[in-house]
Amino acid sequence: MGLFKSIFRGSKGFSAATNALLAEYVLPKLNEATKSEVRFQIIFIMRAGGFPNLTEESIKRRFDKSPREIQLNLIALALNDLGIEPGLQNEFWHEIRNPFLPNLYNDDEVAAVQLRLANQHKIHFQVSRVPMLFDRFI
Predict the structure, then answer these.
(1) What is the pLDDT of residue 33?
(2) How many angstroms separate the first and last alpha carbons of the chain?
(3) How many CA atoms lie less than 13 Å away from 121 in the CB half-sphere?
(4) For residue 10, what pLDDT band results from cuts at 50, 70 and 90?
(5) What pLDDT is stored for residue 134 in this prediction?
(6) DSSP, residue by residue, 13-30
(7) How far, CA to CA in Å, does 130 sit from each of 4, 7, 9, 64?
(8) Is 7 helix (H, G, I), strand (E, B) or coil?
């Protein structure tokens, strides 16, 4: 079943690229109250992911030091948990169990997802290379 599922859902890199691009698309549309909920959910996710004693400050520091693709996938996890959809028809958040995995993000897969989104939704954007700060999403 795992192989069959991966054929239809794509690779982990494809899923991570999709989440990053969709989060990049959704993030500017969120109001400050929702962004605050997302921040609290990221803290919950980090603690639930095996680090229950992490302080809020250490979570913020780790987020701030992470590449933007990782940040966006954490945001996508939080948005999914909060029931916030990607905002494009027939798009959904992909399951990424560990956005911190090395070599998860591949420029070719990001380019393929960008092309797919451009063809299907007529939108053209990319993941910024500038990391965000936890307390100030876009």
Answers:
(1) 96
(2) 39
(3) 17
(4) low
(5) 96
(6) HHHHHHHHHHHHHHGGGS
(7) 36, 32, 28, 11
(8) helix
The one-letter code for the residue type at 117 is L
Share of the chain above pLDDT 70, in %: 92
Q: Which residues contact 133 (CB under 8 A, 6 or more apart)?
A: 64
Quote the CA–CA distance of 95 and 33 in Å, as a whole number. 25
Mean pLDDT, residues 56-70: 95
Q: How far apart are CA 40 and CA 33, in angstroms?
A: 11
Q: State the Cα–Cα distance between residues 56 and 100, nearest whole angstrom.
A: 18
Q: Which two tokens stand for residue 74?
A: 């954490």
Average pLDDT over residues 99-115: 89
pTM of the model: 0.89
